[in-house]
Amino acid sequence: NKAAIKAMIVNRVGDFGLALGIFSIYIFFNSVEYSVVFALVPSFADHYLNFLGFDVRLLTAVGIFLFIGAVGKSAQLGLHTWLPDAMEGPTPVSALIHAATMVTAGVFLLARCSPIFEYAPDALIIVTVVGAMTAFFAATTGLLQNDLKRVIAYSTCSQLGYMIFACGLSNYSVGVFHLANHAFFKALLFLGAGSVIHAVADEQDMRRMGGLKKLVPLTFALMTIGSLALMGFPFLTGFYSKDVILEVAYGKFTVYGHFAYWLGTAAAFFTAFYSMRLSFLTFLSDPNGYKPVLLGAHDAPLRMALPLVVLSVPSIFIGYCSRDLFIGLGTDFWNNAIFVLPSALNAIDAEFISHFYKLLPVTLSIIGASSALLYYTFFSGDLYWLKTSTFGRKLYGFLNRKWFF
Q1: Scanning 87, 177, 234, 323, which has its CA 20 to 30 A from the CA of 7?
Q2: How far is 284 from 300, CA to CA, in rounded Å?
Q3: Best CA proximity match to 136, nearest among 271, 13, 7
Q4: Which long-range contacts (CB under 8 A, 24 or more apart) does 392-397 make?
């Protein structure tokens, strides 16, 4: 009940912002039809409002109001607290609604309203900064979560941050491409988590699992595919969208573009670390749970395993197969659905950045996964020292308490 009430209240804040945006559009444009509003937007580019003695651009105000709606629905920093708590719901609901459909509505709103945001550059800067901070915040928070579904929930929050800041940098097509790719491997991870929870008598604490690799080998293999796709491992689905987002962020050659690139790159490292931590604590470590529960663990029956197998195929191949259609140079897939000012187009600029900045995110992802595996295999005893040292205790408490949000 608390999770449901929190989701309702937090989303009302976003709904209020969205309502203000819609009312503002209706007052000044006398319509809320997409075609009419988008046709009139250029004529309002230099229109100002006087708000509390300050002159504010009309389109900037409208863009910020619409973005508040996206912040609430897509669980961005500040209004994100409802999403991890929503994991109290059934796992198939988490897979469908909290990974693939409902929480991505904010990203869709930004892309659909691209003609408004393109003429509101100040609003786009806010979108970029909030998205980048969300990606970093959620990635660091996921490092120390012990609930299996909450780790995946924070990874969803982090990936939504990537999509949002891609839209903030006028790369709406790349953001929606990552939205589509993310749906497959995140649904695979959630359903895989449901299979694991079902196998161990509804236990969700990873510290009470371990050793499940031999007990649920099919689930282990399929969740490994999902985790690698989430990390952006080369040639899996996540690699073809997440790394492109970071490339075009750096290729923007602006302060906020580079801000998004560096926070996104750091988030990529932490994402790989907590993904490997999840795999290790759940499947690879020594058994830590109750003996009767682990002895009774069993792999998913056919009706549970079939959706996992089906989702694993696009989690590997869909990014490669659809990248030219969605984000290829010169593609006309989006037609008039997305509008970008010619001065904001920078897909070609990204081709000219140094190979170092192109390879850094994927290199850090591999280092993050490797360091997590090595740390928890050989140096897990040092975790006690980390928790008890002065700095470590403060850092551990800060991250474990979710930055005190």
Answers
A1: 177
A2: 18
A3: 271
A4: 396/144
Per-residue pLDDT for 366 more than 90? Answer: yes
- Using left for φ > 0, alpha for ψ between -120 and 50, and beta otherwise, residue 285 falls in beta
**Which of 142-151, 205-214, 308-317: highest mean pLDDT?**
308-317
Which helix (DSSP H) or strand (DSSP E) does residue 54 occupy?
Answer: strand 54-57
Q: Which tokens in the block code for residue 303?
A: 């009706």
Residue 114: half-sphere exposure toward Cβ, Cα within 13 Å: 25
How confident is the model over 319-329, as a mean pLDDT? 87
State which residues form the domain around 285.
Answer: 2-404
Phi and psi at residue 56, to the nearest 5°: -120, 135
Question: What is the C-alpha separation between 273 and 269, in angstroms, rounded?
Answer: 6
Q: Within 13 Å of residue 305, how many CA atoms lie on the same side as its CB?
A: 12
Question: Distance between CA 80 and CA 221 in Å, rounded?
Answer: 31
Alpha carbons 7 and 318: distance in angstroms, whole number: 32
| Pairwise CA distance, residues 168 & 131, whole Å | 8
Q: How many domains are there within the chain? A: 1
**Mapping DSSP to helix (H, G, I), strand (E, B) and coil, where does residue 51 land?**
strand
Tens of pLDDT, residue by residue over 141-171, are 998 888 888 899 999 999 999 999 999 999 9
